[in-house]
Each structure stands twice: as structure tokens, then as C-alpha cells.
Write a structure and sequence with these properties.
single chain
Amino acid sequence: MSPWPIENLGALELIGTVVDAIPGMEIEIPWTSWEARLVLGSIIKTLVEKAASPNVRVREVAALTLSRVADAHPTGLSLVGSAVDIVVACVCGGVD
């Protein structure tokens, strides 16, 4: 179990705030930027890992944040879907 569930929750909430930014705000995610998608892919991979956390609150907030990312933009949906597909394939033995 993570020794810092409060820090995990704070970081997850920050990600959710950025995802929910209204277009035109300074903190808006540049969804169409290649570099931003690379960083977002890494963040989403971490969110998927946190969604399996033994801490119930962290697991719940991570799952909700993944849902927010997927709902925010088609790029977010694609990235979340890819990350989940990879995890499922690994768990089911489809990827070495």
C-alpha cells in the first residue's frame, strides 16, 4: 500500500482540474499537440496503475479521473482506451 494516499489524492485531483479546464484557460490541455499526448499517455498509464491501488479512496479517484479524461476529448478517450487495452492484454497473457 502506498504510504502517501493523501498526496496521491491531491495529485489526482489536480489532474482532474486540468482535464476539466474550460477551453481558452491557461491551464487547458493542448489535446492536439504531439508532445502533450506523449506526456498525457504517461500520466494515464500512472492513473491506470493507481486504479489498482490497495487504498480504496485512491483507487476510486483514479478511476473517476480516467473517466474524466476519456470524457473530456476524443484524444483522451483514445489514450485511456489504449492504456486499458495494454493492461488487460498483459493480465490475460497476451503481451510478454
